[in-house]
Inverse folding.
């Protein structure tokens, strides 16, 4: 049978569910802001194109939310099903943000329902836009709350363990642990960034397919600009995250960087291979960069992986995840800057098809950045589920059926994934913008 | 009042809320599929979809609230129930996922396939069955505590008459609750044909509801005598429940006051549900886990209660707005 070991099975099922959920969660956090911006620009400029953008994005958004909700329900229950010992321990300390998250969902769900069904009920578009504010806030708050839980797993605080008994619990201190500020900021800004690039990719794709409608050009321009802003923010906050790791979780940073011996003036190694004797070959070495990332000082000393006992070292493959994330981050920042510069000075290559194809790829790449960031962060916490307190082995279920459940859920996510693609395509294919705009024009004025 | 009792009362109330809204949703899906099969979809589909569209996500959050809340107030439930529920709850998750997503795909996306509607309807029958197994397990007798944690005896579970009577009750109750609600809803929408059809369904399912509910009390006598005894001590709650039941059936029979009939029906289930819950106190998992062993520390309990009150202060006005705009808005219900 697949996954004889329930611990391994539970890890893989968690990996599967979260990797799938995060796609929809990210868009669920990011797209409301994009809709808000588009509708706001539309009202300001009195430009029907932007209003239509908000309307069409909102329509696609609901389908994504639906999958976000069902996969989120799955992971919420799976935490207890697969990690009962962890949830029992953690429940005493970190239940608060999980509970608050539910209220954030409630709030978001209610207002999203109202927003969607009231497009034509308000004379004043501004009032309708106002309904979106709670949706965007609710989504960002749910990202905030859940990320504090993940921060707690990386930097447990807010309780003492005296003779194996938990005491002195402080739920707020647990929530606002040292990992929370950088983690939350990075997660939210990457969600905005990735959503912007995904929407830009859709617009670019429409332009390539020959629809040279001003609507798509406006959409592309708007989303690329938003993408640039959040790409810069992401890189800045990512830098802070590196400093957080250097100070509080040096083993994760060391494993991600293949930095084995503690030393000053540490270089940053990109890609390459490592052998069993910790020799790195074919890597691209950037001198001083790791010292700068860790401490803002090219001569600073960076703790190496060999300082930690062998059984507490994270797996070395997280190096690749880290590199993929950082390359995508810097790459997309440079790329969207080029786009912005190019349109400013009216360079013709930004309208060339090959360039638009690059934009189409930027969307999936941004999502890959999110996935690799999480894989790096989560594999990099191994072997701990609660760093320094409980290991993954101690936390997992002993049930023999985890492998079977993995197969079932893989099937479910496959069906959902295909379903989303099919439905979104159907939704927009037989529903061209120009036609829809014509209809709108007709009944609005 | 102690934190255990506050926690349990809040959670039980949300579970009750879920039972009612989810039953309406499950049953509506079933009637929708059934009407497709019998060629009556022109009567029902519109009514059902207009009610379901804006609220399905909110229904789901009730469930999420319950399970997140119970793990927060009673973290030990994660330990006791986590491993043993892997299979039944995973199946429920998959059914819920199919339901939620295909529902959304269907309404917001392209007009879909008849197959979806049937899947949607069938999951409405399977879900109450798979979710109610949790209640059966909590009656005790199916779980043993071993060195590696709690273990569930599947054979005993699936051969127990108690299991099957609870499953049957849950399915029948779903039919009854949703047909009573939809009768009222169709009546408010002024759709005579749909009202008449749904009223017929409500009357059909009324008697089986009471028969199966009484059957469970009988089954419990041989399965968990302690619980049976404390149920009998609360006989007056079940008596009130029965009176409310008679009242709502009478109104539906007389074709009047469907709104009152619905409220009486909610009252009927409320008395039965709370009667059952109170009689079960203090056990979360008979006989291994009580609310006293399972409860969280004081600091967390206080924090959760504060958040709960603050959250409600935020939610109730928003829910009221939702209801105003959709459920009780005449022109929306009538499809204008
Ligand atoms: C579009 C996605 C994306 C992009 C472009 C970047 N990141 Fe990132 N990163 C994430 C998406 C992400 C994430 C998915 O949001 C993570 C995973 C866990 C977390 O807290 O955020 C993350 C975690 C994460 C961590 C680990 C934090 C921890 O484990 O606590 C560090 C050190 C960085 N990032 C640093 C960077 C740097 C220096 C970037 C340079 C541009 C960068 N990230 C771009
Ligand atoms: C949504 C984006 C996320 C992704 C893609 C992700 C990915 C992963 C991966 C790859 C693992 C397996 C690590 C391993 O076993 O080696 C894992 C484990 C886990 N994650 Fe995350 N994670 C995400 C967010 C979160 C958050 C926000 C939480 C906290 C609530 C969380 C809780 C867990 C738990 C409890 C485990 C199992 C224990 C472990 O293996 O360490 N994850 N996740
Ligand atoms: C950083 C990673 C995560 C982010 C940013 C995130 C965000 C979101 C968002 C925005 C939604 C609403 C659906 C939507 O609008 O698309 C959602 C749904 C949900 N998420 Fe996640 N989530 C993350 C990880 C997790 C984890 C680890 C859990 C498990 C505790 C979880 C539990 C849930 C639940 C239960 C729902 C459904 C709630 C409902 O019924 O409405 N999420 N998530």
């Amino acid at each position: 049978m697949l996954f004889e070991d329930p611990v391994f099975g539970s890890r893989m099922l968690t990996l599967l569910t979260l990797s799938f959920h995060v796609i929809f969660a990210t868009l669920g956090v990011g797209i409301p802001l994009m809709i808000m911006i588009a509708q706001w620009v539309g009202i300001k400029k009195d430009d029907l194109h932007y209003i239509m953008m908000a309307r069409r994005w909102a329509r696609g958004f609901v389908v994504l939310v639906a999958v976000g909700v069902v996969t989120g329900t799955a992971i919420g229950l799976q935490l207890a099903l697969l990690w009962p010992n962890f949830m029992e321990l953690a429940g005493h300390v970190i239940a608060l943000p999980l509970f608050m998250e539910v209220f954030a969902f409630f709030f978001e769900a209610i207002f999203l329902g109202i927003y969607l069904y009231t497009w034509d009920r308000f004379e004043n578009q501004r009032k309708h836009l106002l309904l979106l504010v709670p949706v965007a806030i609710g989504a960002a708050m749910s990202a905030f709350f859940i990320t504090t839980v993940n921060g707690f797993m990386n930097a447990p605080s807010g309780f003492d363990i005296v003779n194996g008994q938990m005491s002195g619990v402080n739920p707020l201190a647990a929530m606002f642990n040292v990992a929370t500020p950088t983690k939350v900021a990075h997660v939210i800004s990457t969600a905005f960034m990735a959503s912007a690039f995904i929407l830009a990719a859709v617009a670019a794709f429409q332009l390539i397919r020959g629809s040279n409608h001003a609507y798509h050009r406006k959409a592309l321009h708007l989303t690329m600009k938003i993408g640039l802003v959040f790409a810069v923010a992401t890189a800045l906050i990512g830098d802070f995250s590196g400093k957080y790791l250097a100070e509080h979780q040096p083993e994760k940073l060391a494993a991600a960087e293949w930095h084995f011996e503690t030393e000053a003036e540490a270089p940053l190694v990109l890609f390459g291979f490592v052998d069993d004797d910790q020799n790195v070959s074919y890597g691209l070495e950037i001198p001083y960069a790791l010292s700068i990332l860790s401490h803002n000082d090219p001569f600073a000393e960076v703790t190496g992986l060999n300082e930690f006992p062998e059984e507490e070292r994270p797996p070395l493959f997280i190096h690749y995840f880290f590199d993929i994330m950082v390359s995508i981050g810097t790459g997309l920042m440079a790329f969207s800057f080029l786009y912005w510069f190019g349109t400013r000075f009216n360079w013709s290559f930004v309208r060339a098809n090959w360039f638009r194809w690059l934009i189409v790829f930027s969307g999936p790449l941004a999502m890959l950045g999110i996935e690799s960031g999480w894989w790096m962060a989560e594999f990099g916490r191994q072997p701990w589920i609660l760093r320094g307190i409980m290991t993954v082995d101690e936390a997992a279920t002993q049930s023999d059926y985890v492998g079977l459940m993995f197969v079932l859920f893989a099937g479910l996510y496959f069906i959902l994934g295909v379903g989303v693609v099919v439905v979104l395509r159907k939704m927009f294919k037989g529903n061209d913008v120009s036609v829809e705009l014509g209809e709108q024009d007709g009944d609005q004025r | 009042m102690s934190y255990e009792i506050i926690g349990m009362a809040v959670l039980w109330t949300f579970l009750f809320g879920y039972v009612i809204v989810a039953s309406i949703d499950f049953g509506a899906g079933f009637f929708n599929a059934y009407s497709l099969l019998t060629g009556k979809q022109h009567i029902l589909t519109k009514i059902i979809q207009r009610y379901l569209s804006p609220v399905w996500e909110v229904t789901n959050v009730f469930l999420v609230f319950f399970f997140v809340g119970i793990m927060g107030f009673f973290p030990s439930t994660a330990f006791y129930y986590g491993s043993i529920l892997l299979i039944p709850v995973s199946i429920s998750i998959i059914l819920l996922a199919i339901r939620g997503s295909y529902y959304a795909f269907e309404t917001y996306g392209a007009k879909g396939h008849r197959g979806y509607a049937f899947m949607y309807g069938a999951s409405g029958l399977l879900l109450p069955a798979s979710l109610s197994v949790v209640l059966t397990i909590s009656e005790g007798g199916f779980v043993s505590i071993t060195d590696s944690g709690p273990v569930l005896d599947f054979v005993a579970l699936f051969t127990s008459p108690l299991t099957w009577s609870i499953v049957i009750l849950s399915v029948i109750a779903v039919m009854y609750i949703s047909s009573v609600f939809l009768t009222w809803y169709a009546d408010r929408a002024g759709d005579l044909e749909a009202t008449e059809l749904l009223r017929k369904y409500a009357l059909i399912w009324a008697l089986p509801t009471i028969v199966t509910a009484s059957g469970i009390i009988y089954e419990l006598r041989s399965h968990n005598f302690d619980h049976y005894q404390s149920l009998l001590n609360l006989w007056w709650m079940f008596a009130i429940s029965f009176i409310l039941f008679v009242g709502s059936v009478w109104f539906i029979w007389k074709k009047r006051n469907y709104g009152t009939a619905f409220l009486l029906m909610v009252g009927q289930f409320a008395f039965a549900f709370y009667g059952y819950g109170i009689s079960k106190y203090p056990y979360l998992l008979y006989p291994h886990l009580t609310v006293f062993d399972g409860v969280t520390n004081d600091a967390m309990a206080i924090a959760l209660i504060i958040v709960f009150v603050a959250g409600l202060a935020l939610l109730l006005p928003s829910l009221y707005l939702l209801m105003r705009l959709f459920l009780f808005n005449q022109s929306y219900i009538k499809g204008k």
In short: Chain B has a mean pLDDT of 81. Residues A 11, 14-15, 18-19, 21-22, 79, 83, 146-147, 149-150, 153, 371, 374-375, 378-379, 381-382, 385, 392 surround protoporphyrin IX containing FE (ligand 2) (CB under 6 Å). The CA atoms of residues 61 and 286 of chain B lie 28 Å apart. The first strand of chain B starts at residue 143 and ends at 146.
